[in-house]
Queue: 3 jobs
Job 1
Amino acid sequence: MRDLDWNSFDVLVVDDEQDNLDAFRFAFRKSFKLHYALGGAEALGLLDRLDPAVIVADQRMPGMSGIEFLKQAKERRPDTAGVLLTAYADVTVLIDAVNSGAVDRYVQKPWNSKELAVVLRQVISGFATLRENRRLREQLALYAGYLEREQRDPIDFGEIAGESAAMREVTARIGEVAKASTHVLIEGEEGAEKEVVARAIHVGSPREEQPFVKVTCAAFRGDALERELFGWRRGAFDGAFSERAGRLDLAHRGTIYLDEPAPLTPSLQARLLRVLADGEVERLGSTETTRVDVRVVLSLTPGIEEAWAHAGVLPELVSRLSVFPIRLPPLRERREDIRALAEHFLRKYARRNARAATSLSEEAIAKLAAYVWPGNTRELENVVERAAILSRGDVILPEHLAFTARPQPPEPPARAPRATPAPEADTTGIRAPAAPAAPRPKLDLSSQLDDIERRELLAALERCGGNKAEVARQFGMQRTTLYYRLKRLGIDT
């Protein structure tokens, strides 16, 4: 018989006589997790919040017989095994009950505790097998879904293409870390295609043929993220009627990509630290530890690490998650890549739609290069796709480009220096020393870009009447990212 923890499975005992319930309690209280009900009506009420592995019911009860009760119970809990206790051996009735599926086993009264214990273990084992098979089918279906999405939407590594020095450095770091099993931290703004970098690391690694499991952490609130990552045992919390594998189990031997994991509960921090340090996973509600071999790739937007520090995230956890950081530069810092990216996106949509434009005019590229790109590469892709649809010819023109924010206006031409009077003729024969040249102003590209972004955000806030949620939606960023940028740029709203 399977090596199961019998006390982890609920057993509901139903009888209309308290003495019989007490006898059952005395015989089996140390062997099984028992619940009791006086009669069928009370037991049916318990089934609204209880998911028993087995129900033991007496046949002769007033108002509702054991067989009638088990039929109704099976409608609510079809996986639950039904054991009927009877002193009246009406064979025809029992056979009909078994054939109907209401009764799985029947035991003659008076029962023998050892024999009944064997029966209970047998039906509990069957219940556990049924639930395990279902869990495995669901896990396989979930994994098949990942594979189907991979085939249907193959990753487009052209989205991190670029000849700028910044992107060449990113590409080099991807190549450096891919062959190792080191955990990776990817930092970049919204729309900077952090997931593409994570997948590039996975594809370039020995784990390429194993699962790549993405977890959009913002989709889970409270303890839900912990449950999703680690899975649970049956009965671990209200509604946990069956066991479920976590995403870490699904990513075994592969890569798990955690997109923006904030905030982190203390319990989740401790569990993640155990995974990173020892590769150990323990499902919620379980004391059984399993080992997983998984690389963790984490993505953050600027400012989250600071928020982690304020939230008291364990320093050791931060240290282990940021062993190998990769910073993705925003598009406004690598404008020399805009042409190549725009042409890449245009080819991508031209393949999908034969009527789409196939090239961009130089004026259109100049307009793209003048834009601040708060939504980064993802926004560029959206702009190019929209322009490819709006263009009636083969070439995208400036008028086909529509932006969320305003393009950056060209810098005003430099004024000519004011003429200075010619010096009077020198009659002494001695040349006067030349006046020292005025120092050339130092260009501060970072502050100029900040000024551009500040203007665009202020304009967007004015257009949206100060509605930050709408501004974040228009720029394709999360509100936390918007708040961080407003604070960094000194915009008081």
Job 2
Amino acid sequence: MNEPLPPRATSLATDELYYILNRLSRSMNRAADDIAWRHGITLAEFNVLLVLAEGVPLSSAQLARRAFVTPQSSHQVVSTLVSRSLIETVDHPTDGRVKLARLTDAGWEVLDGARAELRVMQARAVADLTAADGERLPVVLEALAETLQGGWFGDAEAAEAAASRRPLRGTLARTPDIRPLPTADRKKPT
């Protein structure tokens, strides 16, 4: 006999912070992808350029972690950006096996145009917030990201368990300490 299931408490997906942030992330990524396309770059390339605009030359491995791509994708993105003269590579000061990427003047030009559009989109996204909420939003989101970094809430045991479930990755993706170096001085199909 099939007995009816007991009633369950229901809630809206939009009651969940995870769902709201995922929706926001997807919307922002779609908008940023459109912006990148208008400037002849991919979203992954845009992310790499944004990270390099911090002014610190980074290795492909560091860029993979910071720009949210796999190490293989990072290598491909770096190669493409180098071939288009949007970034250049320089030798690491202490490790001859490592090349570090940094923006070129052409890379800065592309990024400046794309970033201007990105900032217009971001301003539109927060236009209905009070000035105080608009200023506080990045602080709150960054605090959430720091708290959830890796999803382990600072729990070393949980972090180790998560790492063990990722045998192909081997270690947790953490951005290493970055030390600034002295500086010297594919179009998408239409």
Job 3
Amino acid sequence: MKLIKLSQVMAKTTLSKSTIYRLIKTSGFPQPKKLSLRAVAWLEDEIDEWIVSRGCKNDSSPSNSISTLQAYLLLNGGNKYE
């Protein structure tokens, strides 16, 4: 179980801070865990699962295909063929 900070969540998801917090309120984006009065972090596994779940929609648009590929590469340590 690894905890990651907001900056890492933003990098993994390519979402802005405001978008992340809006998704927490309006959809199934993982809730942060409170570490102290002013600090929160997310479970990395929950963020990874959310990324993968977003790529499973029946959307064949190029942007969705790229997002799915990016999620796959993030979760599998990059391109193994380089």
